[in-house]
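Practice problem 4.
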């Protein structure tokens, strides 16, 4: 009896070891999909994880965790490379990288990339000095911006402003620099995405009194911006990953998993 039990225990142990080996082997052979994003970060959608305010080298955020969830369900892994935005776009266009996770749809991008269904939408808001705009900054439309010096971020398309020439915007390398331009009277108003603003506050990248003396508003004639994941038409796995993401999004919506991700990362911004 003791021998019999010992034999069974040995067999069970062997099966467990084999199962672990198979699991490790399967994990090791999961295809890895290289994607890239803007090195300036796009919180709360794509950014470096912080611990006690200190930046780590781990990339997270709503869009990253959404793709990782899809990867888990489809049996692949994701490598996120943080690159200068123009370099990232060109790397995806050429097939060096497989895709990027946060982009507004344009005719050129429809031509150059496989475009996913919408993954979230955001609103553009205006910030200005209260001393200049004591009545607030809710404007009837973008024509009201034409006489103003308008600040924006390098690499952001501002596709909603179809009546404002992009080259007329005064560009800053990051959002703190944009606010500094505003306070130093280099611009009259700055444009900022409300989701990104929330992300900057969450990551404590703006001081507690960042909005002292400021007012904010919107353009009444502008609709929210709709963001998509986009994948390379030159990379051999681009079309496959596009198909996986497109198929999984409605499934995640129906299961409630997408709502949980939005609640965790976007906090009702959508």
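Answer key:
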């Amino acid at each position: 009896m003791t021998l019999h039990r010992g034999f069974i225990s040995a067999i069970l142990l062997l099966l467990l070891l084999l199962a672990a080996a198979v699991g490790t082997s399967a994990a090791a052979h999961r295809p890895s999909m290289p994607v890239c994003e803007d090195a300036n970060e796009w919180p709360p959608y794509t950014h470096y994880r912080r611990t006690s305010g200190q930046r780590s080298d781990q990339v997270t955020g709503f869009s990253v965790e959404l793709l990782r969830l899809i990867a888990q369900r489809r049996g692949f892994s994701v490598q996120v490379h943080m690159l200068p935005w123009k370099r990232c776009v060109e790397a995806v266009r050429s097939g060096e990288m497989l895709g990027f996770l946060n982009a507004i749809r344009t005719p050129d991008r429809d031509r150059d990339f496989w475009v996913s269904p919408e993954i979230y939408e955001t609103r553009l808001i205006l910030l200005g000095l209260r001393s200049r705009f004591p009545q607030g900054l809710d404007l009837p439309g973008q024509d009201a911006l034409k006489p103003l010096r308008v600040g924006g971020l390098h690499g952001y398309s501002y596709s909603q402003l179809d009546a404002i020439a992009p080259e007329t915007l005064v560009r800053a390398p990051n959002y703190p620099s944009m606010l500094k331009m505003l306070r130093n009277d280099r611009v009259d108003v700055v444009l900022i995405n409300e989701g990104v603003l929330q992300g900057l506050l969450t990551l404590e990248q703006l001081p507690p009194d960042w909005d002292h003396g400021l007012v904010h508003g919107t353009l009444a004639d502008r609709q929210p911006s709709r963001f998509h994941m986009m994948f390379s038409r030159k990379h051999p796995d681009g079309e496959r990953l596009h198909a996986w993401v497109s198929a999984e999004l409605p499934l995640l919506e129906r299961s409630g998993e997408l709502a949980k991700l939005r609640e965790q990362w976007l906090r009702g911004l959508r």
